[in-house]
Amino acid sequence: MRAMRLFPWRSLRLRVVALLVLTVVLVLAAATALDIRLSTRIAERNLQERALTLAKEIDILLGSLWGRTDLRNFHHRLGELARTHRNVADVEILLPVGNQWRLLGSSGRARPTEPIPLDRLAMELDRPLWELLPGSAHLGLAVAPFHLGQRVIGSIRVKASLAEVERLSNLQARQALLLTLLSVLGISAVLGLILTRTIARPIRLLVDAMNAARGGRLDTRVHLRGSDELQQLGDHFNRMLETIATADQENRELVGRLSRFNDELETRVAAATADIAAKNLELQRINEQLWHVQKQLGRAERLAALGQMTAAIAHELGTPLNSVLGYTQLLQKEVTSRDGREKLAIIESQVRVMSQAIRNALDQTRTPSLERRPVAIAPLIEDTLRLLDPVLRAKRIAVTRDLAAAPATIAADPRGIQQILLNVLTNAVDAVEEGGSIVVYAEAASDNGGPPGLVVRISDNGKGIGSEDITRVFQPFFTTKGVGRGTGLGLTISQDIARAHDGSVRVQSRRGQGTTVEITIGPGESV
Fold first, then answer.
1. What percent of the chain has pLDDT over 90?
2. How many other CB atoms are found less than 10 A from the CB of residue 425?
3. Which of 44, 37, 24, 27 is nearest to 172 (CA)?
4. How far is residue 250's CA from residue 247's CA, in Å, rounded to a whole number?
């Protein structure tokens, strides 16, 4: 009883009142929200119809005035029309001039304007359209085609303010809120008086009796008048106390034994639970450590293999390549013929490519770094094919280029892109037989209005790759070439470079039917 006096909000009476009031509030809120929603929709629809009607009237009026008045009179007549229609914020007339739009007339101060898709759509459909003004939730836009005779020559915009609709909606919401508050107060007062007599007093007597029984006075009885459920509850309570008083002594002894047994059982269960929890925590910690060790071991093994291989390559090839490069540069100074210089330049570029390949293999143990800058695509592909021209001529391989759809430039790392092309083209050359063919196709990737990306497809009619190997072509050191003809790192390196460009490398192939490699380079910053 003391708890109820200290915390009256916990009483059954208050809960019943709160439940009923909440029900009424929810019903009123739902009905009010629906009414406000419907009213707002009707008001918005009326405003939309008025704006569209005004746009049609302006079309008719200006069609009749065309050629008989100057531009200032257009502004004046538009201003009069806007002022005579409440909620109209502005009226504009736009004429397309080439790829630009010209503001022919405005009810406000003339200013440059930007076209929106609704202007073109209204002119194409030859009927008025309505939508909310882009970027604003308070202005609606009615766009109608501007006719000169039977021909559509421009568009008419009527901007309608939704402020009045919102004001009426807010006023209706405030009135509904006030009505709801008054209803809550009235219902709470009436229900409080009724529940005090019918529920609160009998329950208080029952609670007092329960508190007395809880204090050990099992001779306590409750006397309630009436024949409702509370009176029946009081009778059952009295009979329950009689039963409890009869079995109290036996229950005391049983409770004592059960209490001792429960204490002992709880002690054992707590000890066992603590032991299991400690073992589970230790096992979880060991599993986490094992997972991290396995992950680090796999990474270390891969890096170790790459490091050993690239170190061997760098040791075996680095010094000879530097010597070849040095002698080539000396020969360029001694050779005077243009043809000889060009051949020496090709040798020098190939040596630099091999040196770069060694550096790229070493870079596999690190995250690829890029230096994006404007790259001309068609010249880059041609330069790459020119590097492979000797081997292409030796095997009489026909190369078909289709670069018409390629972007002029993209933002990329030219060295990385050329490395991908060299790796893929080298694989294609190795795959085709003498007299085979290779097709190089390039196109711009979808840019959605931003800077372009690049898609390059390199197809050959070589021996192809079996289905059992196609899923492994990007694994380091995996190759379908013979012994001594490949390291199995070309596609791995190419995939890493493409991913660093927000792109990818995909391979489609069937044994005996050739191979197609699709290289995707994501768009960088605008160039």
1. 10
2. 23
3. 37
4. 5
Among candidate residues 481, 495, 494, 490, the one with its CA nearest the CA of residue 432? 481
State how far the Cα of 523 lies from the Cα of 314, in Å rounded to an integer: 34
pLDDT value, residue 391: 87
Instruction: Read off the tokens for 473.
Output: 């072509």
CATH for 372-521 is 3.30.565.10
Residue with tokens 């405005």: 106
Just give the CATH number of 14-167: 3.30.450.20
Q: Sorting pLDDT into bands at 50, 70 and 90, what band is 361?
A: low
Q: Confirm if 24 and 183 have CB atoms less than 8 A apart.
A: yes
Kindly report the number of other CB atoms within 10 A of residue 336's CB atom: 7
Q: How far apart are CA 199 and CA 196, in angstroms?
A: 6
pTM for the model stands at 0.38
Mention every residue, 6+ apart, whose C-beta is less than 8 A from residue 274.
Answer: none
Q: What are 366's two structure tokens?
A: 């690190």
Q: Tell me the percentage of the chain whose pLDDT exceeds 70.
A: 70
Residue 273, C-beta contacts closer than 8 angstroms, at least 6 positions apart: none
Mark 252-288 as b/e (b = at least 16 C-beta within 10 Å): eeeeeeeeeeeeeeeeeeeeeeeeeeeeeeeeeeeee
Dist. CA 343–CA 231, nearest whole Å:
114
CA proximity to 55, closest of 112, 108, 107, 98: 107
Confidence of residue 319 (pLDDT cuts 50, 70, 90): low
DSSP secondary structure, 80-130, as one string: HHHHHSTTEEEEEEEEEETTEEEEEEESS--------HHHHHHHHHTS-EE
Mind listing the pLDDT tens digit for each residue in 441-497?
A: 999 987 666 788 899 999 999 988 888 888 888 777 667 765 555 666 778 888 888
Closest CA to 424 of 355, 492, 353, 512: 492
State how far the Cα of 255 lies from the Cα of 261, in Å rounded to an integer.
10
Name which residue leads in pLDDT, 436 or 137: 436
Residue spans of the domains in the chain: they are 14-167, 372-521
Task: Classify the C-alpha dihedral 11-13-16-18 as positive or negative.
Answer: negative
Residue 467 is predicted with a pLDDT of 82
- What the block records as the tokens of 205 is 């007597």
Nearest to 344 by CA among 325, 322, 321: 325
Give 293's contacts (C-beta < 8 A, 6+ positions apart): none
- Quote the radius of gyration of the chain (alpha carbons, Å): 43
H or E stretch including 398?
A: strand 398-405
Which residues have C-beta within 8 Å of that of residue 238, sequence separation ≥ 6?
221, 222
Beta carbons within 10 angstroms of residue 170's beta carbon = 11
| 76 against 278, higher pLDDT | 278
Q: pLDDT tens for residues 151-177? A: 888 888 777 776 666 666 677 677 777
